[in-house]
Fold this protein.
Amino acid sequence: MKRISFFLIAMMFLGGCHHQTTYAKGCGGLSSNWITPRDGRGIMSLLSVITVRADGSLQWNGKSVSDTTLKTYLQETATLNPVPVVQIRFAPDVDCDAVARLRRLVSDTLDCKFGQCAEGSGRWWRIGDVGPPFEAYDPQPTLPPKQ
């Protein structure tokens, strides 16, 4: 009897492991090296956007691409100077396996340590010297004479 109940419990546990979770329900947190639009990006940085639709189709800056083409684009992006920020926007219904696969592809191709990898949607905050009055940084300011 103990064997049967152990077997049934094990089957229920293993059966629940195949339940697919979607992006909207949570697919784990981002790596600490990744940024979000809320974190901001430099005013001079370029942005490339990967859009992942619910059906799994991919777009690179609004144009449909295959997995192979996406990988090629990411490899080319890694050679640019300055390297653009690459942002992934997932549809809420994308399953977590696809999310993990694309995060891994971007992380393996780009150097995400320097804010080049991003995820999420929303308005990008811009970081830099924007708007008046602009004051240039003087590393050795002249001090007023002592009186």
In short: The mean pLDDT is 81. The beta strands are 41-42, 47-52, 58-60, 63-65, 85-90, 117-119, 126-127. The longest strand covers residues 47-52. The CA atoms of residues 41 and 126 lie 5 Å apart.
